[in-house]
């Protein structure tokens, strides 16, 4: 796996997912598996664009689920070939939607995979519909646990703050245990 700063990677084709990926929890894992599956199917690189720190951690000073090193280790275990890490700060927050889109065009994505509530760019003005004006975008529905609740970083943070660490760990998942049967065990 190779790691890049924004704008440093240029590719003739790729399949990308973009996100904070704080925790690289089971919901993220489903999205990453789908992105990797499509990249493998097309025979092109699997690229992840992520942020450090995660936007919610920077903006709301909330609990960070994984350090950058831990996140990168988990992304490597998920099979990422290229990871772009954007330093999320005041400057990054001011990046215009179309500047970000131009940056993505340097990666020549044949597909971009996201969750349905994906937002990006200055004041979160970018969304799935704007991305679709420029790229082929696939949307993966959020993964739910057995209680029917969406698995999210915010939910995991809340569980940890309540001291419900066993439940939080269950939602984070153990990447070391992933196999073909694990990948197919989720209804998406």
Question: What does this protein look like?
Answer:
Its EC number is 2.7.7.2. It is an enzyme of class 2 (transferase). Belongs to the RibF family. Pathway: Cofactor biosynthesis; FAD biosynthesis; FAD from FMN: step 1/1. This is FAD synthase. 38% of the residues lie in helices and 18% in strands. Mean pLDDT is 87; it is low at 177-188. It has one domain (2-183): Rossmann fold (3-Layer(aba) Sandwich). It is an alpha/beta fold and 188 residues long. The strands form 2 sheets. A 6-stranded parallel sheet has the order 1-4-3-2-5-8. The chain has 9 helices and 8 strands. It is globular and about 45 Å long. Helix 7 (153-161) runs antiparallel to helix 8 (165-172).
Structure summarized in a few sentences:
The chain has 188 residues and is an alpha/beta fold. The protein has helices spanning 26-42, 55-60, 68-77, 90-93, 97-105, 128-132, 153-161, 165-172, 180-183, and strands spanning 2-4, 14-18, 46-52, 82-87, 109-114, 119-120, 126-127, 137-139.
């Amino acid at each position: 796996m190779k790691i890049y700063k924004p704008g440093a990677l240029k590719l003739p084709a790729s399949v990308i997912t973009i996100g904070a990926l704080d925790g690289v929890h089971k919901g993220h894992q489903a999205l990453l598996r789908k992105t990797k599956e499509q990249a493998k199917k097309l025979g092109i690189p699997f690229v992840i664009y992520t942020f450090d720190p995660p936007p919610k951690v920077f903006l709301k000073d909330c609990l960070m689920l994984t350090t950058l090193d831990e996140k990168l280790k988990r992304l490597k275990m998920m099979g990422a070939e290229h990871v772009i890490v954007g330093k999320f700060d005041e400057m990054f927050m001011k990046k215009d939607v179309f500047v970000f889109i131009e940056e993505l065009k340097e990666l020549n994505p044949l597909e971009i995979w996201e969750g349905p509530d994906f937002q990006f760019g200055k004041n979160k003005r970018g969304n799935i519909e704007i991305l679709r004006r420029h790229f082929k975008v696939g949307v993966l529905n959020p993964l739910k646990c057995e209680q029917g609740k969406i698995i999210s970083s915010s939910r995991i943070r809340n569980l940890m703050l309540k001291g419900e660490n066993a439940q939080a760990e269950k939602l984070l998942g153990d990447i070391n245990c992933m196999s073909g049967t694990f990948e197919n065990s989720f209804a998406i």
